Amino acid sequence: MKTKKVRGHRRRWRAIDHWVEYDRHLDLGYLRQYQRAYTKIGVRPWNGISITESEFAEVRKKTRIKMLEGLMEIYDVWKRDLEAMGVPYYLKIWWYEPRVSQSQVVAAIGESINYYESIFYKPKGSEEKRPTGILLNEPASDFRWSYHWDEDHWDNGQQTEGIYDFEEEYDWERKWLEKIKRKPHRISKIIAPDGEEVELYSFRRGVVWVGEFD
């Protein structure tokens, strides 16, 4: 797959400012209804869907810094909103490397707290890992950052023949899954919503630093 350069970074910086202004206050009604809320870095071209056989280059350093500053500003406002609710809550920044454009602020209350506390895989020795790069700069250095893996997940429960309109679609995805399973991956067991146990295949893409400020 080809990688396309991203130009016009000053225009992206203005878009980051607009995203922060739009999402800086937590939608408490949505949070109470669904027990979770999040905001991803809503800046094109990284948040769009490519219709060509290419992907966009990841974020440059100055733009990364501005994105991180935006996430921290949203985090600060959301923290005040959550404190005002007077209930236990989850609030973290998920900072992805190298897939910086996937980074986000995530909040949860109620039963969703436990789900988000264990959503990422922590490999052996992760407690000794320390952040590098822009996470060492103030004010990010005031956060506590924990090390996790950024992974893509697929499961054998997706290979249910009856959910496909055409047999060719089922055969194509079955062969595709068998092909990617030749790559290094983790295997674990999960319980699907229908109660069935399925095998989960997790392919590492990078790191997720999960940050919070006490």
TrEMBL record:
Species of origin: Persicobacter diffluens
Protein name, entry field: Uncharacterized protein
